[in-house]
Structure formats: C-alpha cells, structure tokens
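Before relying on records like the one below, remember that each one covers exactly one chain. Contacts with other chains, cofactors or solvent are not represented anywhere in the record.
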Amino acid sequence: TDPVLDYTNHAYDYPDLLSAPPPGEEYPPLEKLGDMFERWPQDEIDNPPSPIVEQLLHFDYSNPAEMAVAVKFRDLELPFKVYNVPELDAANLKWTDSYVASGFARHNDYRPSKHKPLAHGSAEESTDNFFAFFVSKLWNPETMGPPPTLDNDWNFETWAKHARYADKVQLPFNEPHYYWQAGVPPEEREGPKDDWTFISKDLPSFSNPYPTFFGFNPPEQKGIQCRFGERGVTAATHYDTGRNMVAMITGAKRYIIAPPKECSKLGIVTTARHPAHRHSLLNFAHISLLNNPDVLSMPEQERAWLELARESLAIETVLKAGEVLYIPSHWFHYIVSLQKSAQCNTRSGMPDKPNHYFGGRDTVQECEESSY
C-alpha cells in the first residue's frame, strides 16, 4: 500500500554545490528550532511545505569530482547527503516486505538457520508516536514512572502489516505506534560471506571489512544498525559518538540535526548511569503548545526546557530512499518517520579532532548536566 503522500516523489529544491568547504560557520546554515517547527509542525505529516527547501549539500556518488569534495566535508566533520548509490537503488527494489521478513527470525527466540543466516530484530511500542530511548534495566518504574516505550513480541510481518495500515489510514500521532529495530554485529563481516545475513549482503559498502566511503574506519565500526519506521514514529534527540552514515533504503524520514555546541539547550541527559544517557526526553511537537492558552497542564520543568530548546540552532533534511546522510560525531539528531521506511547506518569511530566551530566530544562532555 502506497502512502497517501509519498515523500520519495515530493517536490524539493536543492542548493548549488560548492567546490570546497566554506570558511567558518557558513555551512551548514542553521535556524532556530522554533522557526523550523512553525514552518512545518512535527505532526503535520500530511501538510509539508511544497517544495521542501533543502539546505544540506547533495553529492552524486557516481561523480568522482563531487565525491572528492564530499570527502573534504566529511573530514571537516560537516554534514551532507549523497545520492545515486547503486547498492541502495538495488536494495530499494529488493527489500519488499516478504523479502525482508524471510531474512528475519520469525520470533524473538532467535535460532540460527543452517540453510540461511537470519537476522534478529524486535519491535517496540509507544502509546503515541514519540519514542524516547533508554536502557530498560536501569529504568526504575517506582521512582521514574512508566518507561517511555515497551518491547513486544511482534515479528517483522506483523510490524509491516501495521506500518502499511498506518500509511493507509494516515495514523494520527496520538494512537499507538510501533518501531522495528535490528542490527548486525561487527564480527559478521569477518566471517564467510555465505554466513552473512541479508543486511550485510545487500549493503556491501557498509559491511566491507576494508575501508569504503561509507565505512571508512572499519576497526572502529560497531556493525550495522537498521530501523524500520512507520508513519509518525519520532525518535528523541540523541547523539552518537561515532561518525555516522545513515542510508535510507525505502520510504523517507525527516532528520533534524544540531551541532554539539547546542547541547545545553536540548535537555540531553548527560549522567552516565542514567537510563536515558545521551538522549533527551523532550518531544519537540510540544514546542507549538508553549503559546497556546488552552494548554495549562504542561509540567513546569518541561515548559522551561522547551522554551530553551526552541531557541537552539539546527538544520533539517528529508532523507529519502536512495540517499545517505552523514552525521558527524556527537551531532544531535531528531528523527520523524514520514512514511513506512527502512534505514540502516554504520559508524566509523570518533575523529582525531572535532570541527573548530561546531564542537565535538569535549563540547558535549562540558555540557551542563541536566536531569530532565
């Protein structure tokens, strides 16, 4: 079932390419989070701008000259996108629901198959479309209340059926949503290719034990992580320490990324033993409620953090099938699934030094600790 609004075929305006990274803080151009969500509120998935004006540079993977410039941006820890990637175009055609389902164990009691290596995945559920991630064993319901999300026992086929339904009925944001997550361990790439799961086989530039443009530091890679989102699923702001290449295989997601220097405005939990460490628990959809006189019940602490967050600086992009987004180390990202989608990423460790203007690991470590 096709979504009512297919973002892979929407209208977009793209910036002119640059021949080299510009000086200082000219790129990427940032804007206030509040302005971003005023222009396109988070949960108004069926009412996007048209065209969507892209600000991140888009490099053609098949063009060596453009990719030489992309390497310069990558080395300076600046975000960008790449398109026209043959293996993603091939995977887009291949990754039907039936094909992907055949590559996963049918239940969570994973058992390796002697005939076909099977990947392992699981579904999470939320009472609405917001997913704030946490370490479940560290979450104490008695002192912290109910956890943000719950694991369930769905297999991929069940998840995909609901994701198709969500597209068909334009599932409202306040109804239960489901998120399918899977991963490939880094050890898989070291074994015989006959033992690789479909994820590694279909994404050779991500699973290659030797350096590629996307997996450019194999010793520091942590495998491949895949996220299958249904319409509306929103992942809370967080950062990853590793330099992150995010490939969209089917569908589309809205990424809002912010540099490390914005850490103190985003409600990031910086306490190492907190179950939500590296993540924020803020739902940015609530920014639009701050000036709504009918909203009287917002907790005081949430309101204070959202007022701070709406002044933070970020840039957004719609990442659609066939594109790869580079998210530099310690850059924050907030993700909205615009339709049923499949996305996989791999990370290549931390850089030797961060971007001078936007910050990196030290910036985040110095970030004022919060306990939102």
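The two ends are 40 Å apart (CA to CA).
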